[in-house]
Write a structure and sequence with these properties.
Strand content: 25-35%
Number of strands: 7
Structural class: alpha+beta
CATH topology: Small Protein B, Chain: A
Radius of gyration: 21 Å
Number of domains: 1
Strand order of the largest sheet: 2-5-4-3-6-7
Helix content: 25-40%
CATH class: Mainly Beta
Length: about 170
């Protein structure tokens, strides 16, 4: 323990703290994994305005029914609802506007192939801050049928019963 009699090594200001950038999740789309079979996922940056960033930092966003589209070689996010910033003025943003996603060109080409040729869907899984940048986790998914959803529920219930039985022992 460091005290007045002992000297403690102080980190140099130029040294970064150990570990990766802290991530803080703002919103998750819990329904996505139930409605879709997620085959692959990507991390994309989001182009936001100032009041949108402030509203996200306050922890206010909804990803219900949010999905991505590929249009003219760019990826866009639709139906993500970020409520207007409470302290904003007349320059506040529109809550459900279409937002551009920032991906590398090779990632966009892979998404074009998957979405247009294979008929898969881009689903927003979660929104979070990685360091100071807002990011969206996109999942490439294939829609589940009703019997697939029932199988998922049945499997989940079986796992719960096994966990209960092990807990009792």
């Amino acid at each position: 323990m460091c005290g007045p009699a002992t000297s403690c090594p102080m980190p140099k200001p130029s040294e970064k703290p150990s570990g990766d950038d802290p991530t803080r999740v703002i919103a998750r789309n819990k329904r996505a994994r139930f409605d879709y079979e997620i085959l692959d996922h990507w991390e994309a940056g989001v182009m936001l305005t100032g009041t949108e960033v402030k509203s996200l930092r306050a922890g206010r966003a909804t990803l219900n029914d949010a999905f991505g589209i590929v249009k003219d070689g760019e990826v866009w996010l639709l139906n993500m609802h970020i409520p207007p910033y409470e302290m904003g003025n007349q320059f506040n943003h529109e809550p459900a506007r279409t937002r551009k996603l920032l991906l590398h060109q090779r990632e966009i080409r892979r998404l074009i192939g998957a979405v247009e040729r294979q008929g898969l869907t881009l689903i927003a899984l979660e929104v979070y801050f990685k360091g100071s940048h807002a990011k969206v986790k996109l999942g490439l998914g294939k829609g589940k049928k009703i019997h697939d959803k029932r199988a998922t529920i049945k499997q989940r219930e079986g796992e719960r019963e096994i966990a209960r039985a092990l807990k009792v022992r």
